[in-house]
Design goal:
The complex is a heterodimer of chains A (about 230) and B (about 190). Chain A is of the alpha+beta class. Helix content of chain A is about 30%, strand content about 30%. A five-stranded antiparallel beta sheet of chain B has the order 3-2-1-4-5, with no helix packed on it. Classes of the chains: A alpha+beta (about 230), B alpha+beta (about 190).
Chain lengths: ~230, ~190
């Protein structure tokens, strides 16, 4: 990416049928998916039949009956994929999983508010909003309005039977005035859930696609970062 | 919002069924979750007529505090985005260093082109246990940035934890190996 992100993360989201209470640091350590040291340092927010949430130095886990989320902000990101693949391929292979998102999120700075406003207008020109478009600008930079969220979707993809790529651009909530937030959701679906009795297909996709998915997501993010160079 | 509702619903099940009155339910919940001092205060209130269903009394009791708070994990304070990344495998292990062959993933190299020595002391305790000839790892260099604005150069090595081969994968690999062997013999 041409601009070094201020905050950078990757998450893997699985949609299926999960049993939250088993996702306990103790369980992961028992199966050598994390070390004893990592287990002892884990911060548990809650482990309950409806929700399990804990964090380790490099990993955050959030599990609900229909959703599993693993997230990291620490490179090398392949560690996250290896962790999820090993968990479900070696120990929880009968878990029905029908959808997966490999998500890349970054917050980056474009150095000044004018530049961010200019990029916002390139993505969502005020002119398209007619007479109201003139009012969006506001009377002073402090009162300036503009684009607050824009998502774009690609559906026609050769590397999957079902799914899409969705990219979202927003002003960053973490980097005041000069930051842009981008999120790319690389979404995969297997056959209709009723026919899907395990997670083998989705986990093989994760294993094979993770590196390429991140590369493509960063390439998409780079397209927006490049708008900063347009004079 | 969904989580809160679900938690409350399950708390009712945890107490062995839905309480007869909302007041009883709150009393039962308070007994389980509040401090001894607060429980004593509620005991006193309970001795008064209909204490929990009296809207005036509710001002004395912070009902919200009786429920577990919404689970939250403090946000991560640092982020490490790689500037360059390699995949490598261990060739040789010495007393203090190990030698590895590397593929530069950032430049999208297809085969190993570099060899490097790494100090074993740079590995985490967990990764030291995984250090053996042939072991595959990722090496990333970049900057770790904290929310407070500090920035430090970081080099991170992580040994890969690959899953076991499944029967289906083993069969597929054998099939491919046979095809390859047949092709080579045919040459």
């Amino acid at each position: 990416m041409r601009i070094e992100p201020e905050i950078s993360g990757v998450s893997i989201v699985l949609v299926g049928s999960f049993n939250p209470p088993i996702f306990h640091p103790e369980w992961f350590a028992k199966h050598s998916l994390i070390s004893d040291k990592e287990k002892e340092a884990a911060e548990i927010a809650i482990i309950h039949r409806e929700i399990a949430m804990f964090r380790m130095e490099w990993l955050t886990i959030n599990v609900q009956p229909e959703r599993f989320v693993a997230e990291t902000q620490e490179a090398p990101f392949i560690r996250l994929s290896d962790f999820v693949v090993k968990t479900f391929k070696d120990f929880l292979h009968h878990t029905p999983i029908s959808m997966m998102g490999i998500n890349r999120q970054v917050h980056f700075s474009v150095e000044n508010e004018d530049m961010r406003n200019r990029i916002g207008k390139m993505l969502a020109p005020h002119g398209a909003w007619g007479e109201w478009g003139k009012n969006i600008e506001g009377k002073s930079p402090k009162e300036r309005g503009g684009m607050i969220s824009l998502s774009m979707l690609q559906k026609d993809l050769d590397d999957r039977k079902r799914g899409y790529i969705k990219a979202k651009v927003e002003p960053s909530s973490k980097i005041k005035d000069v930051g842009i937030y981008m999120e790319v959701n690389d979404h995969y679906e297997v056959e209709p859930p009723a026919q899907n009795q395990d997670c083998e297909e989705i986990i093989i996709i994760l294993e094979r696609q993770f590196d390429d998915s991140l590369k493509r997501s960063e390439w998409i993010i780079d397209q927006i970062m490049s708008l900063k160079d347009i004079k | 919002m969904t989580s809160e509702t679900s938690l409350a619903a399950n708390m009712i099940q945890d107490t062995g069924g839905i309480s007869d009155t909302y007041g009883d339910f709150i009393y039962d919940t308070a007994q389980r979750y509040l401090s001894a001092k607060r429980r004593h205060q509620i005991d006193l209130l309970r001795n008064q007529p209909h204490p929990f269903n009296d809207t005036v009394k509710r001002q004395d009791i912070d009902i919200i505090s009786m429920f577990p708070s919404v689970p939250r994990i403090e946000s991560i304070k640092a982020t490490f985005a790689p500037l360059q990344e390699w995949e490598g495998y261990v060739v040789e292990i010495g007393d203090e260093t190990f030698v590895a062959r590397l593929i530069d993933l950032t430049s999208e190299a297809k085969q190993e082109e570099e060899e490097a020595d790494f100090p074993i002391s740079e590995l985490s305790e967990t990764d030291k246990q995984r250090l053996r000839p042939g072991a595959i790892f990722r090496w990333a260099i970049g900057y770790r940035k904290t929310r407070s604005g500090s920035k430090e150069r970081v080099s991170s090595i992580v040994f890969r934890r690959l899953p076991a081969w499944t029967d289906r994968e083993l069969k597929e690999n054998r099939r491919k190996a046979k095809l390859l062997a047949a092709a080579l013999q045919g040459e």
